[in-house]
Amino acid sequence: MDEAAVEPTLVQSLAVSSVKGGRYLSHSHSFQHCSLASWIKDNIRKKECCFYVEDAREGICKCGYPKSLHCEEAIKPEDCQGEEWDKHKHVRETPTDAFGDISFGGLGQKIGKYVRVSSDTPSDSLYQLMTDQWKLPPPNLLISVTGGAKNFHMKTHLKDKFRRGLIKVAQTTGAWILTGGTHTGVMKHVGMAVRDYTLSSSSMERQIVVVGVATWGVIHNRHSLIDPNGRFPAYYFLDEQGQGRLSCLDINHSHFLLVDDGTQGQYGAEIELRARLEKLISQQLLGNKESGVTIPVVCVVLEGGPGTLNTIYSSMLNNTPCVVLEGSGRLADILAQVATLPVSKVTMVLIGQLMKRFFGQEYKSFSEVQIIEWTKKIQDIIRMPHLLTVFRIDEEKNCDVDVAILQALLKASRSDERGSRQSWERQLELAVAWNRVDIAESEIFNEESQWTSSDLHPAMFSALVGDKPEFVRLLLENGVCVRQFLEHEDTLCELYAHLPACFFLRKLVKRVQGGKNRRGQPMPPGRRKISLSHVSEEVQHLLGSFTQPLYVPSGQKTAGDGVALMLPSKGLVELPCSGEEWSANTVLDPGRDLFLWAIVQNNRELAEIGWEQCRDCIAAALAASKILRKLAQESGEDDTEEAKDMRELANHYEKQAIGVFSECHSWDSQRAQKLLIRISPSWGRTTCLWLALEADDKSFIAHSGVQALLTKIWYGELSVDNPHWKVLLSMIFFPLIYTGFLSFRRDEDIQKQNERTEQLKLAMDSFSAGNTDAKLKRHFRGPSQNSELEPLNCSSRLMSLFMSPQVKFYWNIASYFGFLWLFAVVLMIDFQPSPSWRELLLYVWLTSLVCEEVRQLYHDFDGSGFRRKAKMYIKDLWNILDVLSILLFITGLVCRLQASDTVLYVGKVILCIDFIIFCLRLMAIFTISRTLGPKIIIVRRMMMDLFFFMFLLSIWVVAYGVAKQGILIQNEERLNWIIRGAVYEPYLIIFGNVPTNIDNTQFDMGSCSVNGSDPLKPKCPVLNADNMPAFPEWLTIIMLCVYLLFANILLLNLLIAIFNYTFQEVQDNTDTIWKFQRYELIKEYHSRPALPPPFILLSHIILFIRGVLLRHSPQRHKHFRQELEQTEEEELLSWEAFMKDNYLASSRQDESQSVEHRIQDTAEKVGAMSELLEREQEMVSATMVRRLSKLEEQVSESTKALRWIIDALKSQGCKSKKELPLMRCKSSDREDGDSSGQETEEDVLPHKYARQLQYPGSTVKRFPVPEEKVPWEANFFPYLPPVYNQQGGSISDFSVLDKYRNPGGRTGIRGKGALKYLGPNHILHPVLTRWHDSERTFLEFLAVWEDGEECWALPGSSVKPDDPLPQTLQRILGKNMYERIKSELEAAEQVYKGYVDDSKNTDNAWVETTVITVHFDKHGQLMSDINRIVESTLSSPQSFQWREVSSKICVCPYQQEALRLIAKRLNTHF
Questions:
Q1: Distant-in-sequence, close-in-space partners of 1349: CB < 8 Å, separation ≥ 6
Q2: Cβ(692)–Cβ(619) under 8 Å?
Q3: What span, in angstroms and rounded, lies between the C-alpha atoms of 795 and 376?
Q4: What distances in angstroms separate CA 1353 from CA 792, 1346, 1385, 1444, one per listed residue?
């Protein structure tokens, strides 16, 4: 099969992820309704009567429906004349006419689903309807609730526990609840539980799926549900008073399957279909389909009658566990009473007494045969204790119903015959699917089970994919090794293939769909699968191009479609990918992989677990912050919940990084600083410091430990304790550095090392006094001698002074002030037509500044590439000012060098404006200052606010200016005066320049030009006949007042408020922002040449010669990036992991001591104490009732004993009229009937397989035979078994049958049954055994596969009493081999001979077997020939195999007992 067809494509994985979020893409409701109606009409049918036969009631057919509801063909059928009405023959199927949504009205009621189905509808169609059409997620558990169909009373405590436990188990496990669907009995209790949950839960919580399977013909008001095209919705009203013998649907169920068998008023039509549906669901695979675990089913029993007993009996025969609630009444209480008794004590008398006690008056309606049948079924039920769980409210271990239900399932799974390991794994898979950590802790991870990491890997995968962080943590605590779990890259690929719907998955989709193969051609659709190379490319995009890929790219995969991870190995050489270098040190880091997988899907809980598994935890937290902020930014919707959650999680991991780094810094500041600059192989060979800067983690950068590192880099080799004035003085008089005027860091390090050496010598001397081991002495001396520091010489001190970034900064400040002074002198004093020497010096100075800007643009400080460096350069506002100032200077210079005086003056104006920009650029220099730096940040923020304010102000200015200009002036054509009147004058009004041209009293004819002919005067307003302004004075004054009100008062105060808000906001964070921006200045001056402008041109020439002409590699800055040796790397990471554990422990301790946690803890303790007191009160009450009952019974027995004594005395030693009653210590309402009162264990138990009610291979049912009636000697007058002969023929003479009587006792059926002969039917089983190996590890036997029984069996067949060997053995082995081993078999040792408890036995025919055994030498010639024959039969229907002699082998019970005896004879384990 093609591999592409097997592995999930990307589109499939996206569809799966979409299903988890919403299952399908949303369509319009009308489209969904049309689709549902079309599907139902094609697949779902109903039943209707096609032959009207009037019943005893007039106008009513025997089907129960009136004549008016029959079609015309049914009233006058031509094909059915003269026939009796038969439900199987005269009912036909037609398309259903009742389906859609159902609304019950009322507050908080949700819309449900319903459909009318035929009783013969295939179960797979119903399951497809519920999962595909109704969009129900497949269940992790099916809870079938059965019991009393009529209303019954339950104790308040039991009712509350049942409702609470049922909802809890359904909610936590994602279960479906299956009931009868009507508003009566146990269904009503389930509905009330769902109602309580609905009213107390929010709409966002998971809806409880409660499916009601009811009979259509008994539903009251069903006519409101009928519509051939479906009803959306159908309004259904609960009418209990008018329902009569019918039943109403329960309003709290969510879905209804209304089963139609063509009749009306007859209950029970749904039983068979419900059983088929439960069986089909139990065969569906659960969750992780690769595990092979199917959906578990559990039956919960409340109260109940005969129908409930049949349901329980059938369920348990199908290996379905049942939970019985003691105290709910009737059948449930009977089962609870006898559940702990041995089968021999469960007699007909006891069952009769219990039925009389719990059924009351209803007991009189039971016949003797029914009581016998009840006794037999109850005996069979309690023989299966692994499937029966009784919930007792007075027992502490069953404090909740949900725990009892889940424990019942696990108990049933634990008894699986496949073996203990498979059983434990199935239980774990179920617990993971249910998401019940409490059940797993108490029932699975205990002392009985021993788990390895590989055993838990499937459960770990399911827990991760299913988003169950508590289970992931539990599995890690119980032995899961993340390195082993992610050892194979396919596991990580599968995890990414099962990502839930998230933004990262959508980005991954686009990347895979646009993926190309090795030759650059698009990949075919069939091969577009998620691989780790796609993940690596996307993660590298999120982290930044400065990182290297985390996984091997697509071009470096080996043959095949699998995904390969880069493993560290010696001599491994990798090819470059897409023109980028790729180090061979890319490592496999399982903790990182798990953490990254959780981060990209924005899963906080799983990410926290993954982060705890990371060794490089600070880098991991900072990388997560970067990835999440980038994802939130690219999502494009800042207000979405997903983006908000991403930012919140990014802030969380920034705090985590700060917390761990604080812990590290408090212990060892030097090591902590090394963590910041070490290259992290796990995160693309970047550093923590660079990740924090790229993630914009200002709080992390502002940490005192990070600032200490930056300060250390800022001072260079100088000591950070040097005052500024000393540094400035040494810059001018540099010989002072040789006098000790300045302290260097090397001197401090030497001093510290000497102090440590002295302490080490003292320790060595004290140690050597009592120990003369020379090796230990060399161990102490070694480090101090090998790592001794040398003091700086004269040249080194001079270089350290002038290479210090701080000194470079001071020289550049002085240089820049000199440049501005020279620039100002040229502009104001020395700007001649031909450049003077000052101006030429200015040009040289500017040239050095231009060269420095070019160097900064091309200087790759961190190896991120030119494109990224260019983007970062453009994003910096100060760099934009630099480029703008340089461009303006060049423009002004070009104009200045022109011969024209006008152009020369224009050039000077441009240079003057450029001088302003150069002065503004001076602010960037002072960002390093702790005092001025934050203020500059505030100014920048206020400039942004001012820009938006000017936009608002311009609206008012232009609005008022245009209106005023239009009212005053008629057709002004001069553009400059239009701008003055519409913009300039309204703007000046804001600052108090009140205009005079809007008031007639201040009009002056000489201040304006009538026709606008004077260019220096504005045009006069429109004049009247008196040469006075004709404009409405009142309007212009009102406009001015309104304008001043809004512009001066409102907008200006708004600007002040904005500035105040910005100042307060920034003021609180100025220190943090300043510390963050300080890094850029430190990095700039760290990489800057030592000489200031204009002397820096010499450094540029040297750099040009080295880099361009000589092709020397660029210098790397070790102060910002440091690669450690492997040993040092391991030690540092181990120390970091230890610090992380300390931080997490202290965080948990702080959280536990918080006020909120204490309040919550106190509330939980109070609730637990309250519940404990209530439970104690209930237990005391129940204990008192039992003690009173025991006391009454003992008093009754004492009365009988006294009466016997009196009778004995009266008779003077003669025998009393009554037997001596026995005093019983245990209370019981049960009597043993025919028993003598002495409880003795019988050595041989009565046969049970021969009394199964259903005879195998037929529809015949046995007469129920309780255990005490099995012996022929026991009186059993109602015993009337049927006669059955499978091979045909009947035995009319019962005297012939009476000649043969089963030695095991009654079986409930007479005749030969499926056997050949009356009387004993002999079977011979020759068992051939051998040792598995020469060391006798275990014993093996030759087994044959039985297709009919679907199990292994001992070779053998029916023989006559005088036949030595079965003929089937000769047929299989062949005549020659048969003759060779015949003599061996004839001399074989007999293991067992006698009666066999077989399900085919009858009263008159039974199986007797003889088991013989022969042990062969594995290395003999005979064994070799037998092995060849065994291998040749593997393909035949009846194949042979050598199987281990073990208790886990699946064979018949009596054959398993025979194997046990053989193992005992050969002294081997079984």
A1: 1452
A2: no
A3: 107
A4: 91, 7, 18, 12
Of 1, 12, 5, the C-alpha closest to 526 is 5
- Say if residues 252 and 266 touch (Cβ distance below 8 Å): no
pLDDT of residue 291: 64
- Helices in 384-543 by DSSP H: which ranges? 401-414, 420-434, 437-439, 457-465, 469-477, 482-485, 489-497, 503-513, 532-543
Q: What is the pLDDT of residue 628?
A: 92
> Is the torsion defined by CA of 469, 471, 474, 480 positive or negative?
negative
Task: Specify whether the CB–CB gap between 226 and 260 falls below 8 A.
Answer: no
H/E segment holding residue 214? strand 209-215
Task: Note the residue count of the chain.
Answer: 1470
- Closest by CA to 806, choosing from 749, 724, 924, is 724
Q: Is the pLDDT score of 619 beyond 70?
A: yes
Does the structure show a pLDDT above 60 at 429?
Answer: yes
Q: Give the DSSP H/E element, type plus range, for residue 298.
A: strand 297-302
Cα distances (Å, whole numbers) of residue 1447 to 129, 212, 425, 1339, 1451: 43, 42, 19, 12, 9
Question: Which residues, in sequence order, are bridge partners of residue 718?
Answer: 744
DSSP-derived secondary structure for 1382-1435: HHHHHTPEEEEEEEE--TT--SSEEEEEEEEEEE--TTSHHHHHHHHHHHHTTT
Largest CA distance in the chain: 161
- Inter-residue contact 1090 to 806 (CB < 8 Å): no
Among 77-86, 506-515, 986-995, 1308-1317, the range of highest mean pLDDT: 1308-1317
Q: What band does 926 get if pLDDT is binned at 50, 70 and 90?
A: confident
Q: How far apart are CA 47 and CA 60, in angstroms?
A: 17
For the record, the structure tokens of 571 come out as 């001599």
Give the model confidence (pLDDT) of 325-365 as tens digits.
888 888 999 999 898 888 888 888 888 888 988 888 888 88
In angstroms, rounded to a whole number, what is the distance separating the alpha carbons of residues 685 and 549? 9
User: Mean of the pLDDT values across residues 1398-1412?
Assistant: 89
What is the token pair recorded at 7?
């592995």
Model pLDDT for residues 290-326, shown as the tens digit of each residue? 667 788 899 999 988 888 888 888 888 888 899 998 8
Helices (H) and strands (E) counted in the chain, each on its own, are 52, 21
Q: What are phi and psi of 883, to 5 degrees?
A: -65, -40
Secondary structure (DSSP) of 411-448: HHHHT-TT-HHHHHHHHHHHHHHHT-HHHIIIIISSTT
Model confidence over 384-426: pLDDT tens digits? 888 898 888 765 554 678 888 888 888 877 765 444 566 777 7
Distances, alpha carbon 1079 to alpha carbons 162, 706, 861, 866, 1115, in Å? 64, 10, 13, 20, 19
15-35 pLDDT, tens digit per residue, is 334 334 443 334 456 778 888
Identify the bridge partners of residue 1340 per DSSP, sorted by sequence position: 1330, 1444
d(CA 1211, CA 1202): 14
Helix, strand, or coil (residue 390): strand
Question: How does 822-834 read in b/e, with b if 16+ C-beta sit within 10 Å?
Answer: bbeebbeeebeee
